[in-house]
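Exercise 7. Predict the joint structure of the components listed below.
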Amino acid sequence: MEIIRKNFKDSLSTVYSAIEEADFLAIDGEFSGISDGPSVSALTNGLDTPEERYAKLKKHSMDFLLFQFGLCTFRYDQSESKYLTKSFNFYIFPKPFSRNSPDIKFICQSSSIDFLASQGFDFNKVFRNGIPYLNQEEEAQLREQYEERRNQANGAGTPSFISPSSKGPVNVPDEHKDFINRVIAKVDSLLSNTEKTVDLEPCTGFQRKLIYQTLNWNRVDEEERRRREHEKQEREQEELNDAVGFSRVIHAISKSGKLVVGHNMLLDVMHTIHQFYCPLPEDLNDFKEVTMCVFPRLLDTKLMASTHPFKVHNLRRTPSNLPELVRPYFSDGFQSYNTATEQLHEAGYDAYITGLCFISMANYLGSFLTPPRSHISAKSKLIEPFHNKDHVLYVTFPKEWKTSDLYQLFSAFGNPCTCTSCFLWHAQN
Amino acid sequence: MEIIRKNFKDSLSTVYSAIEEADFLAIDGEFSGISDGPSVSALTNGLDTPEERYAKLKKHSMDFLLFQFGLCTFRYDQSESKYLTKSFNFYIFPKPFSRNSPDIKFICQSSSIDFLASQGFDFNKVFRNGIPYLNQEEEAQLREQYEERRNQANGAGTPSFISPSSKGPVNVPDEHKDFINRVIAKVDSLLSNTEKTVDLEPCTGFQRKLIYQTLNWNRVDEEERRRREHEKQEREQEELNDAVGFSRVIHAISKSGKLVVGHNMLLDVMHTIHQFYCPLPEDLNDFKEVTMCVFPRLLDTKLMASTHPFKVHNLRRTPSNLPELVRPYFSDGFQSYNTATEQLHEAGYDAYITGLCFISMANYLGSFLTPPRSHISAKSKLIEPFHNKDHVLYVTFPKEWKTSDLYQLFSAFGNPCTCTSCFLWHAQN
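Solution:
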């Protein structure tokens, strides 16, 4: 399901219930670039310590925009012994919602843009129709602005038509009483619907002030005032929700506490937190803590595939020859991806494929049980050892070793893959 | 005329001859943003000295991409007493042409992107079909790479199949002579067209080396070798031209020495030089020198409009009520812009409108002559005082003055406009 600015609000309940009913979620992001400094291969060099890798990515990757977010939800249907999936492909763009809203600058990397262009990526959908978002601080600031304005309107502040020295109305001087009474008569006539428009006589600034205060204090009864206040608050809440935009989807994923699966997902997680929650902390341990708060259960299929018992298992299988049993079916009304005609690098499809890889590996664990089981739930204890692993492959090795030694060491289960967006079957080639 | 990667090469001669025959050229650029630091209004604050303004724009504007370039050529047709115009709208993108080519990073500013999106700007045309370009240093580097490779192929270097110690071929050892003769027979048969493919026996690295040198030295006669060398050079020259891409249009404008007109053109000129010639110098005077080399005759219609005798002249005229006399006609095969349905912020249209403003002001100068003249040529001496003015409005004023004093001073001929892309009639409102 493609979700852009126009259909976002109407689709939100569908997204929420898909998350709510899911056994696990798979995510994937597309970015406007990878590295604004070192080459991509140097940036994702498999030999860095986790601290080094985190620091490099934080420094050189966070100014790019995550502009397409794929979410695929998987729910196991016991009666059919199959997964039911719903795939969402969100286009995201920080459209400024007012003159005072943050005017985000982001970097584009020509090679990444050119690559996405070659895959048929639709940039107009991002820039014309992308869903806006706010991080938590921006949301809090906007909420504060609305509250301040509301307090002012309720007389707590000092709006321009109330004299700072007196909170109440000033007396209407005798020489202006006729004028004000004429205005009241005209407005009464407007409110009682005998007139459709009202033409006021030209007046001075002081007379205008008298009109405001008279109409404000006299014309609207208390109940009507409360009703209007309530309407206004609802309108403001809706404006606020619109501005928070796509971040609400991430909040829902976070709140669900569901297992979130990604492939080589470090950059996805970093961008998601950076863009929709808060600027990334300096320290890797602080980042891990923030991550645990936002996504309590994460699983990286690339790391899982490089861990016992998968690292010796031949996982060269491509999605098109996944066993029939594993293949999920698509919920009604949802775009069905055909794995024979790959749509790699559309985030929704990539999330879907990542989910398939996870299902395949989870079920493989079932083959070790006595008796073997063909389906292993995402909530199974068997999966837990793969949760929340370091997002970086940390290799300790004698200091006199060279890169070539490491590559040789790893060659038994495939070269360490330095590509940040490749898939399982690439990683294993 | 819309020009993208696909039709660029075929359109180039049309562009060249339009420039060649023109009396003057108008240009305009669209960028991926304006400021990565201060707000746009602070960046283009009319009260800065030229040095300050140049330094600010160089620091905060040059990392954006000029991704649409409008060129409108104007040729005066004496027999019709009208201008003939040709308008070109180029989409530009630094698509990497090989693995080793520069991987340009550029910034996008959400408010600028959102503004262009609201004007119907087609981002897919930029990112999927934009014409590549190189600056002069990149072009020189690429040319050098080609030359190095050519020298290597001609034996001046040390390609892998020639032993470093001997430039000539090694002798074919007796035990390999049969093998080599069989290969020669097969290749001869291929060349004489009795066979369509050639299957070589499996061979060792040394045998492969023998094959290369034998075929290289023996099979091709001198004339054929020269023909192929020539073909290869032409192919390389074409590859080089493709990589230089859009920069060739700027080179042609520069080489023509024609008057180049823009509206509020400082940013356009800075981006054009930065993107297609060289990184901008630190110092404003050096920048002016570079600019004089690239564009020997520049005229800014916004500055012209704020100079005697225009600053007291009512220029609130919009393009739709330009006198009939001024309105140019469009050459056959060229998109005709209808000034009634404005297409503001398409670079080709903006360049066209800028040209109209210039014609209107140039002709107004003719009204001061005795007898008055209705047409003043772009080459007239009357225009020369407006050439190559500082690109910044430098106001000297007593140090105790405040901004409000300056605004009041200028109010007689409109507020100093701080918008970088507005037009004459906005500037004068």
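Discussion. The first helix of chain A runs from residue 5 to 21.
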